[in-house]
From TrEMBL:
Major facilitator superfamily (MFS) profile domain sequence ranges: 1-428
Protein name per its UniProtKB record: MFS transporter
CDD domains listed in its UniProt record: MFS_MefA_like
Record InterPro entries: MFS, MFS_dom, MFS_trans_sf
Mode of membrane association: Multi-pass membrane protein
PANTHER family assigned to the protein according to its UniProt record, in alphabetical order: INTEGRAL MEMBRANE EFFLUX PROTEIN-RELATED (PTHR23513), MEMBRANE PROTEIN (PTHR23513:SF17)
Membrane spanning stretches: 58-78, 90-113, 152-174, 186-203, 245-268, 280-303, 334-353, 374-398, 404-425
Keywords linked to the UniProt accession: Cell membrane, Membrane, Transmembrane, Transmembrane helix
Subcellular location: Cell membrane
Main location: membrane
Superkingdom assignment: Bacteria
Amino acid sequence: MTTLAVEKHHWGSRRFLGIPEYRRLLATRLASQWGDGLFQAGLAGAVLFNPERQADPAAIAAGFAVLLLPYSIIGPFTGALLDRWDRKKVIVVANLSRAAFVLLTALAVGAGLSGLPLYVSALVVMGIGRFVGSGLSASLPHVVDSDHLVEANALATTAGAITAVVGAACAIGFRTLLGAGDGGSAWTTSIAVVGMLLSAFIASRFRAGVLGPDEVDEPPNAFKAVARGLLDGAKATWHTPNVTAGLAALLAHRAAFGVSLMVTLLLMRYSLEDVGILKAGIGGLGEVAVAGGAGILLAGVLTDRIVDRFGVRTTICAALLLTASAQVGLGLPMTLPTILAASFVIIFAGQIVKLCVDTAVQHDVGDEVRGRVFALYDTLFNVTQVTAVSITATVVPLDGRSPGLILTAASLYLVGLAAYLLLLARKRQVQHPGLVSENDGSHPIG
């Protein structure tokens, strides 16, 4: 790559923030993810670290299943709406809707409800949040040239993830001020509504149609179009080998992450003790979030440059090998310092894989079906994590100390690496060149 090409490719955050529509899309994402982070941390505190409640592995797994699986069933179908309706309106209405359900969830927490009554409203918040995220990702190519998608996506995704961490930290702070019981947890959870309302307001400032879709490649009948969403998303994904391969790598990461998440939650809740300035309990989860946020930030800064230097294929393979090594080297000791170090490395490498896959979808999948692909992407994400958490819950001890599960998580990364290479090597003729374009993953996107 010539010097001129490198200079053209790397714009830097200041150049992107100079684009009004990109800046507005980024602000929409930041407000939304701040609310997401606060809501999720507030709910986790209410359920897992509430002195008025007790949580075992089965209860944690049930919570994940109830929160994520219902959306995983309907997500691919609602994804068709992102390719049919003005995405600006979808994002605005979705944010307003989940703001209402945030308040309902807070009321359920305050009333001391548990199990299904609590999770019904919470699952709607989480589900619509995924829907908003898909809409924002599908809209990005409308505000940034395709040559700069990697860098633009890295900035948006990284800033959003860090803002979610800030939201989670705010929840911990509010919980300290308002109390750790049902009443304080309810007030903490309800504050997330501010992020949703602000996100809706910012998105409403877009001009109609500016976020797409530019064309509607669907049947006139809305019900038929929605019902066809899963099949369309799957077809578009399958006809793009580098997207299919990248998704396999990402799902392996998500499965391993689900195993590690369950182990970490239980270690923080029942096993670990404070080490100097490092705290266990819900404070420890906050430290894990900060370590992960630092990893996300570093990935956002380095991914575009790593991809330019080594190509997508080498970058993803190296990231998977790094995560497997971190699971073994830093995860097995199961001490508070090594857990924090493992969180940083694993989330850093996992975010690199995610940025590569996000950009592949944005670059190679046609706009008329991109929303359905992102919805399928999110659904597989959810199902994989729920499955991993649920299986882990059946074998993990209450104190979380299970070297076998750490080794299993490391092995999943190696399985993902093998699947990625096998799927990337698949030589398949694209049947619908109007919807997707080929990229073998060995060269930088754009």
